[in-house]
Design brief:
Oligomer: single chain
Distance between the termini: 167 Å
Largest sheet: 3 strands, antiparallel
């Protein structure tokens, strides 16, 4: 019963079956390609995320190492500065009118501050000292506050002695209070209860040991301006 129509129908059926199989095959290939592409995207995204996390972890470790090293250096500098503040002291040289640094342990002195202090400096002691200008006039200087004054500060005890003010360049030489500061407990005169500087105290004690006739002779010589106070000290020492 193979007729022309049956052959056509059979051929159409075969072509349909072949087309369905080919479509199923192509659909399967497309699904596999899509799945492979999605898998590759996921793998690439995972790889990129992993690389970012690793880079961030390395950056974090590097930042921590840099910060910790900076902290260690800062702490080391602070410790060195603390040791310098304990070991060194800043003093003012009365002759050269500048600061110098003295090692309390070894006694070594230097015009330059310790390198460990970097941009910082050792504070000078808050105290007054007596200096002389080019004309030998005494004045008072506070190295900590950089304050200068011609009259003695109120919070410092001044020597109670009387000396010749030779810096006035006058004749006869005028006398007045000693510009130096009073010394410690060893410079306290128990007779009058007055505290003197070391120079006036030594002169006072030396004067007490001299005989009365020698004192009268010195007073007479001073009254007629035979010699100055410096010459008097030389006579006594001689």
């Amino acid at each position: 019963m193979e007729t022309k129509e049956a052959k056509v129908i059979a051929r159409e059926e075969v072509l349909h079956m072949i087309g369905e199989e080919e479509r199923a095959r192509l659909h399967d290939q497309m699904n596999k390609a899509f799945a492979k592409r999605e898998h590759d995207k996921v793998m690439m995204r995972t790889k990129v995320d992993t690389a970012k996390r690793e880079a961030q972890a390395r950056a974090t470790v590097y930042a921590v190492s840099v910060v910790s090293a900076a902290c260690r250096r800062w702490l080391a500098r602070k410790e060195m500065q603390r040791l310098c503040l304990e070991r060194y002291e800043k003093k003012y040289d009365e002759e050269y009118h500048t600061f110098y640094y003295k090692n309390r342990q070894t006694g070594e002195v230097s015009w330059t501050k310790p390198k460990a202090m970097s941009v910082f400096d050792i504070p000078a002691k808050d105290e007054w000292i007596v200096l002389r200008d080019l004309h030998n006039f005494p004045y008072y200087f506070n190295a900590s506050k950089f304050e200068i004054r011609w009259i003695p500060p109120l919070n410092v005890e001044v020597c109670g002695g009387t000396v010749e003010h030779s810096w006035w360049r006058e004749h006869p030489i005028r006398t007045g209070p000693c510009p130096n500061f009073a010394g410690g407990a060893c410079c306290l005169n128990e007779e009058d209860g007055i505290r003197y500087c070391q120079e006036c105290f030594d002169r006072l004690k030396l004067n007490d040991k001299l005989p009365d006739y020698f004192k009268s002779w010195m007073l007479h010589c001073k009254s007629i301006n035979v010699y100055t106070l410096e010459q008097e000290v030389m006579v006594r020492v001689g």
